[in-house]
C-alpha cells in the first residue's frame, strides 16, 4: 500500500504541500510584521502616542512583542495548530469563531458559483465546438471573452444598481439570512453573487470544454462510433463529452483560487458575511490577528483543494500516475 | 483568473521582429486586440504627459453631473470633474501600473525560471519552493494583503501585483528550459567551453521568447484587472489620482441619475482588458504547442 503510494508520487506530493504550508505561515507572519505600527497602535490608535515608556513596555510584554521574532513565530504557529487563531477586538470574539461562522457561507457561495459556471460553460463550450469557426462558435467565444474581461466588481455593481432601481429587487439590502434559518431568502441573496462569480468561472470552463471536445471529436474511436451508426446526440454526450470531462474537471478544481479571490470583492459588494469579507474588514480595521489567521485559513483551503484535485486526477486518469 | 489558466501553453520558439509583426497582423483576433490596445496606449501616454481637455482633479460644483456634450465628452461627475479626462488619466494610471508590474515579474520570473531549469539542483529546489508558496495564495488575495502592507503609491501597488505574477513566469519558463538544456546545440555550446551563463543567455533565452511574449500580454490584462479590483476596494491607487476601479466605486450610487459616470470607466476598463486578452489569445494560438489551427 505504502509502496504504491510512494510509487505514484502521492507521499511526495503530500510532503510538498506540508512544506508549502509552512512557507505560507512564514510569509503571512513576516508580511504582517512589516506593517508600520504594531498591535498596540492598532488597538489604541493615536492614544498609543500618549503611553509612557513603562506602559508601553508592559503592553509589549503582554502581547509578546519583546520576545525574539523566532519565539514569536513559533508561539504563534503553536497557537494556530492548537486552534487558537487569535482574538478580534472589534467583534469581541475569537477569530476561530468568526472563521467558523464565515467559512460555510463562502463554501455555499463557491459551490453555487461553480454549479452556475458549469451550467453556463459546458453547453456553450459544446455549442462552440459543434461547428468551429461558425457564427455559433463566435457567440461562444464572445461570451468567453466577456467572462474574462468584465471585472466581477463591475458586473456586480451594475447588476445590483440596475435591478434595485428598475425592479426593486434588492434581497442583499436585508440582513443576511443563513441557509438553515431562511433558505428562501438565503438563496435569493446568494443568486446575484454566485451569478457574478459563476460568470467569471464559466469563461475558462467554456474554453476548456471547447478545446477538449474538439480534441476528442477528432479521435479514432469517435469516427468508429459514428460509422457504427451511433446517433449524433448520443455520440456527443456519451462518447465525446464523457472523455472531455477530465480536463473540464481539472479546470473546475483549479478555479477555486479565483473564487476565493473573487469572493473578497463580491462578498463586499453584496454584504455577504463570508471569509473574503472577513479579510477585507480586518485589513480596513488594522486587525492583525484577524487578517493573519484568515489569510492562513484561505491559503490552507486553497492548498488542500489543489492537493485533492491532484490526487483525484491520479485516480481518474491512470496515465498521470506514471508522470 | 486561475493560476493554470494564466499559464500560456506555448511552444518554445525564437521570435524575430518580422515574425512577431506577421503574427500580430495576420489574424483578425490579434489585429482587433492590437487596435484596441494601441488606441488606449496612445490615450494613456497622452494622459501621463498631461495632454487632457480638462484637469481630471479640478472640481467645478456648478457643472456637476452634466450629461455628455461637446464640452464634456463623457459628462461630469458629482464634483463637476470632467469624466473623459478622469477616464483617460485612469487608463494612464492602469497602464503605468500594469506595465511596471509585468516588467518586474517578467524579468525576475524569467531569470529565476532560467536558473532553476538550467542549473537544476539546489537552485531549482529553492526557487520551486518559493514559487509553490506564492502559488498557495489566491492571486487577488495576495495582491490585497501585500497592497495593504505597503505605504500606498502607484509604484507599491505595481510591486504588489508584480510579486503575485512573478511565480507564473518562473513556471512557464522553467519547463521549456529543462528540455532545451538537453538539446544538442545547447550541449555542444557547453562542451566547447562557453560559460554556463553565456550559454543560458545566448542559446536558451532567445528560444523561449515566444513564451515570454504571450505570457507578458496575458499578464498585462490580469494586472489591469487586479489594479482595478484593488482600487475598487480602496486598496489600489491612492486618491485623488483617478483610477478606473475607484471611479466605478464612486459611480455605483449615481447610476440612475448619471449613468455616464459608470458607463465611461466601465466600458473603458472592459475594452482595455478585452483588447489585451484578444492580443494574448491570438499570439497564443499562433505559437501554440499543438501548432496552428488546433483550436
From TrEMBL, chain A:
InterPro entries: BPD_transp_1_N, MetI-like, MetI-like_sf. The keyword Transmembrane applies. Keywords: Cell membrane, Membrane, Transmembrane, Transmembrane helix, Transport. The chain crosses the membrane at residues 14-35, 109-130, 142-167, 187-206, 244-270, 290-313. Residues 103-313 form the ABC transmembrane type-1 domain. Its main location: membrane. It holds the Pfam family BPD_transp_1_N. It is a multi-pass membrane protein. It is found in: Cell membrane. Belongs to the binding-protein-dependent transport system permease family. This is ABC transporter permease. The lineage of its organism: Bacteria, Bacillati, Actinomycetota, Actinomycetes, Jiangellales.
Automatic annotation (TrEMBL), chain B:
It is found in: Cell membrane. Its main location: membrane. CDD domains: TM_PBP2. It comes from the Bacteria. Residues 91-280 form the ABC transmembrane type-1 domain. It holds the Pfam family BPD_transp_1. It is a multi-pass membrane protein. The chain crosses the membrane at residues 29-52, 97-119, 126-147, 153-172, 204-225, 257-280. Keywords: Cell membrane, Membrane, Transmembrane, Transmembrane helix, Transport. InterPro entries: BP-dependent_transpt_permease, MetI-like, MetI-like_sf. GO terms for cellular component: plasma membrane. GO terms for biological process: transmembrane transport. Belongs to the binding-protein-dependent transport system permease family. PANTHER family: OLIGOPEPTIDE TRANSPORT SYSTEM PERMEASE PROTEIN APPC, PEPTIDE ABC TRANSPORTER PERMEASE PROTEIN. This is ABC transporter permease. It comes from Jiangella ureilytica.
Amino acid at each position: 500500500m505504502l509502496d504504491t503510494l510512494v510509487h505514484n508520487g502521492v507521499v511526495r506530493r503530500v510532503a510538498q504541500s506540508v512544506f508549502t504550508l509552512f512557507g505560507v505561515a512564514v510569509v503571512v507572519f513576516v508580511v504582517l510584521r512589516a506593517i508600520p505600527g504594531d498591535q498596540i497602535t492598532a488597538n489604541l490608535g493615536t492614544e498609543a502616542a500618549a503611553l509612557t515608556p513603562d506602559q508601553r513596555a508592559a503592553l509589549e510584554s503582554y502581547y509578546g512583542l519583546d520576545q525574539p521574532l523566532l519565539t514569536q513565530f513559533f508561539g504563534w504557529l503553536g497557537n494556530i495548530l492548537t486552534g487558537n487563531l487569535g482574538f478580534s477586538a472589534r467583534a469581541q470574539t475569537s477569530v476561530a469563531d468568526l472563521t467558523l461562522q464565515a467559512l460555510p457561507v463562502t463554501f455555499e457561495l463557491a459551490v453555487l458559483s461553480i454549479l452556475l459556471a458549469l451550467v453556463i460553460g459546458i453547453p456553450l463550450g459544446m455549442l462552440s465546438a459543434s461547428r468551429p469557426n461558425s457564427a455559433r462558435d463566435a457567440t461562444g467565444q464572445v461570451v468567453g471573452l466577456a467572462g474574462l474581461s468584465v471585472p466581477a466588481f463591475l458586473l456586480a455593481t451594475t447588476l445590483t444598481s440596475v435591478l434595485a432601481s428598475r425592479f426593486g429587487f434588492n434581497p442583499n439590502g436585508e440582513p443576511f439570512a443563513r441557509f438553515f434559518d431562511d433558505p428562501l431568502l438565503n438563496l435569493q441573496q446568494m443568486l446575484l453573487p454566485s451569478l457574478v462569480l459563476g460568470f467569471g468561472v464559466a469563461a475558462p470552463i467554456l474554453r476548456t470544454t471547447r478545446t477538449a471536445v474538439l480534441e476528442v471529436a477528432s479521435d479514432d474511436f469517435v469516427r468508429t462510433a459514428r460509422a457504427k451508426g451511433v446517433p449524433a446526440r448520443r455520440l456527443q454526450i456519451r462518447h465525446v463529452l464523457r472523455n472531455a470531462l477530465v480536463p473540464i474537471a481539472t479546470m473546475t478544481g483549479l478555479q477555486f483560487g479565483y473564487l476565493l479571490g473573487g469572493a473578497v470583492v463580491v462578498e463586499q459588494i453584496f454584504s455577504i458575511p463570508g471569509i473574503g469579507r472577513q479579510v477585507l474588514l480586518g485589513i480596513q480595521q488594522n486587525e492583525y490577528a484577524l487578517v493573519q489567521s484568515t489569510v492562513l485559513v484561505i491559503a490552507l483551503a486553497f492548498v488542500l483543494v489543489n492537493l485533492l484535485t491532484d490526487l483525484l486526477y491520479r485516480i481518474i486518469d491512470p496515465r498521470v500516475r506514471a508522470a | 483568473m486561475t493560476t493554470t489558466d494564466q499559464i500560456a501553453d506555448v511552444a518554445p520558439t525564437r521570435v524575430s521582429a518580422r515574425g512577431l509583426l506577421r503574427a500580430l497582423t495576420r489574424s483578425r483576433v490579434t489585429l482587433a486586440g492590437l487596435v484596441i490596445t494601441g488606441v488606449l496606449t496612445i490615450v494613456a501616454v497622452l494622459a501621463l504627459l498631461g495632454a487632457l481637455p480638462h484637469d481630471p482633479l479640478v472640481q467645478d460644483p456648478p457643472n456637476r453631473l452634466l450629461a455628455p456634450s461637446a464640452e464634456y465628452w463623457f459628462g461630469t461627475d458629482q464634483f463637476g470633474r470632467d469624466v473623459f479626462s478622469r477616464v483617460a488619466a485612469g487608463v494612464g494610471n492602469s497602464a503605468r501600473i500594469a506595465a511596471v508590474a509585468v516588467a518586474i515579474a517578467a524579468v525576475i520570473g524569467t531569470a529565476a525560471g532560467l536558473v532553476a531549469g538550467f542549473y537544476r539542483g539546489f537552485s531549482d529546489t529553492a526557487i520551486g519552493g518559493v514559487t509553490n508558496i506564492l502559488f498557495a495564495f489566491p492571486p487577488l488575495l495576495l495582491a490585497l494583503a501585500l497592497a495593504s502592507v505597503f505605504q500606498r503609491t502607484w509604484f507599491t501597488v505595481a510591486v504588489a501585483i508584480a510579486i503575485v505574477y512573478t511565480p507564473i513566469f518562473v513556471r512557464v519558463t522553467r519547463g521549456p528550459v529543462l528540455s532545451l538544456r538537453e538539446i544538442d546545440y545547447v550541449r555542444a555550446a557547453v562542451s566547447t567551453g562557453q560559460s554556463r551563463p553565456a550559454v543560458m543567455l545566448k542559446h536558451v533565452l532567445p528560444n523561449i521568447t515566444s513564451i515570454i511574449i504571450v505570457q507578458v500580454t496575458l499578464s498585462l490584462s490580469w494586472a489591469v484587472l487586479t489594479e482595478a479590483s484593488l482600487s475598487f476596494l480602496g486598496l489600489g491607487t491612492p486618491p485623488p489620482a483617478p483610477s478606473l476601479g475607484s471611479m466605478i466605486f464612486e459611480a455605483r450610487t449615481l447610476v440612475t441619475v448619471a449613468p455616464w459616470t459608470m458607463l465611461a470607466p466601465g466600458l473603458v476598463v472592459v475594452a482595455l482588458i478585452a483588447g489585451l486578452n484578444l492580443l494574448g489569445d491570438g499570439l497564443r494560438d499562433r505559437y501554440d504547442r499543438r501548432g496552428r489551427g488546433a483550436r
